[in-house]
Design goal:
Largest sheet: 6 strands, antiparallel
InterPro entries: Kinase-like_dom_sf, LKB1_c, Prot_kinase_dom, Protein_kinase_ATP_BS, Ser/Thr_kinase_AS
CATH superfamily of the largest domain: Transferase(Phosphotransferase) domain 1
Number of strands: 16
Radius of gyration: 31 Å
Enzyme class: transferase
Number of domains: 3
CATH class of the largest domain: Mainly Alpha
Distance between the termini: 31 Å
Cofactor: Mg(2+); Mn(2+)
CATH architecture of the largest domain: Orthogonal Bundle
Mean pLDDT: 79
Strand content: 15-25%
Shape: globular
Helix content: 25-40%
Order of helices and strands: HEEEEEHHEEEHHEEEEEHEHHHHHHEHHE
Family: Belongs to the protein kinase superfamily. CAMK Ser/Thr protein kinase family. LKB1 subfamily.
EC number: 2.7.11.1
Structural class: alpha+beta
């Protein structure tokens, strides 16, 4: 090989900074078999990133992109279906993922002793440290859930720690979904009045119990109202809740937390102190407005404009909302906390006492991964663990290509469109592609799959 092709650069620690003609540093240059030795002798053409090089554009045009990237078709990317591995956390058998929030994941779970279906919230301490007041909110929620027991409040069944992995497992009673998920799946984004009436009655029952225990929730909204398999409403997410001292003469609070769209005018206007119980009354009124109209009483492009609109306290009720629901919404969404309805006034209201007639079919609970029955996801893991044949032929393993997975995803989205869930499916598809239930295999393991 010619010495000109073996140019090297002197060490940066060398005392001499001189570079001879035979020892130039060559970078960012791709040599092909057709390249001549004299092509690098001209110092002006050594560096294609030289801003003073007049032929810079020409060099970029002459670059062959194929030398940098290898094109691989979707038919050549092969995946293998993942095997179901049984995982035990104490006496509980882990199932599939049900949802994921800001604090952690929620998975399906089975109690191996009582055979009761549970849901587990998995929290990582490293993740909580990155969230403002994350650890404090979780500790507050655990403390409240241990002492609060009511049929319309989420029940904490067990609490497990893994100090080695810094994980916390909150085992709770199983719920099939939230009111927010049902609203998103509904074409009109609202419930019929008789269905909203049933949920609102249970909300008031749970809220009355919390207030009797001197607890202010501060974040009542459809996303924090869950439903069980029996249709019971459960108030959840007590992370920002506040406990009023038992000997305090009133329910005054000083810290306003929660979702901005459900905050009352006293918080939006920046008051130093406010009635905690009336905050929950206001957010319950916004929730009732939302589930019966499909809209929000106050809106704004930014949080500042939203709070400005809430602070004024002026809102409109759609014309299709008639009495007595109309007067109930007005009473719960009064700007002055002193004039706002109390729980006792809500219970005595005409709309609360009398159930509206059934005028249309109820909004169903959306299916979980195309399963309308929400079947237990733990069962396949048990079958795979106890009935799997260790001598099973490897030829029975299923393989997929990237192209086939794309086609299956496309057909799934099309079927959801045809079932009337176009808005929900398109938003989820655009936000994040669902995870593949497969693991990637190197194409080198298959003799017929060579890169192009």
């Amino acid at each position: 090989m010619s010495r000109d092709m073996c140019n090297t650069s002197k060490s940066l620690d060398s005392e001499s900074a001189d570079i001879s003609d035979q020892e130039r540093e060559v970078t960012n240059v791709i040599f092909n078999s057709k390249d001549e030795v004299n092509s690098i002798e001209d110092e002006e053409n050594l560096f294609i990133n030289d801003p003073n090089n007049a032929d810079f554009d020409d060099d970029l045009e002459n670059l062959n992109i194929a030398n940098f990237f290898h094109k691989v078709d979707s038919d050549q990317i092969i995946y293998q279906k993942k095997k179901r591995r049984l995982k035990l956390i104490g006496k509980y058998v882990m199932g599939d993922l049900l949802g994921e929030g800001a604090y952690g994941k929620v998975k399906d779970m089975l109690d191996s002793e009582t055979l009761c279906r549970r849901a587990v919230k998995i929290l990582k301490q490293r993740k909580l440290r990155r969230i403002p007041n994350g650890e404090l909110n979780v500790q507050r929620e655990i403390k409240l859930l241990k002492k609060l027991k009511h049929k319309n409040l989420i029940n904490l069944v067990d609490l497990l720690y893994n100090h080695e992995k810094e994980k916390m497992y909150l085992i709770m009673e199983y719920c099939v979904g939230s009111l927010q998920g049902m609203l998103d799946a509904s074409p009109d984004k609202k419930f019929p009045q008789y269905q909203a009436h049933d949920y609102f009655l249970q909300l008031i029952d749970g809220l009355e119990y919390l207030h009797s225990m001197r607890v202010v929730h501060k974040d009542i909204k459809p996303g924090n109202l869950l439903l069980t398999l029996e249709g019971d409403l459960k108030i959840t997410d007590l992370g920002v809740a506040e406990t009023i001292d038992l000997f305090a003469k009133d329910d005054i609070c000083y810290i306003g937390q929660g979702s901005p769209a459900f905050q009352p005018p006293e918080i939006a206007n920046g008051l130093d102190c406010f009635s905690g119980f009336k905050v929950d009354i206001w957010s319950s009124g916004v929730t009732l407005y939302n589930i019966t109209t499909g809209l929000y009483p106050f809106e704004g492009g930014t949080i500042f404009r939203l709070f400005e609109t809430i602070g004024k306290g002026d809102f409109d009720i759609p014309n299709d909302i008639a009495e007595p629901l109309r007067s109930l919404l007005v009473g719960m969404l009064r700007k002055d906390p002193e004039m706002r309805f109390s729980l006792r006034q809500i219970r005595q209201h005409a709309w609360f006492i009398s159930r509206p007639p059934c005028s249309s079919p109820p909004v169903p609970i959306p299916p979980l991964r195309d399963d309308a029955l929400h079947k237990m996801t733990v069962f396949p893991y048990l079958v795979e663990h106890y009935y799997h044949d260790p001598n099973e032929n490897s030829s029975d393993v299923q393989y997929f290509t990237e192209h086939e997975l794309n086609e299956m995803e496309k057909s799934r989205v099309d079927s959801e469109y045809s079932n009337g869930n176009a808005n929900q499916s398109s938003s989820k598809h655009n936000r994040r592609r669902s995870k593949k239930p497969v693991s990637c295999i190197s194409v080198k393991n298959f003799p017929g799959c060579n890169q192009s």
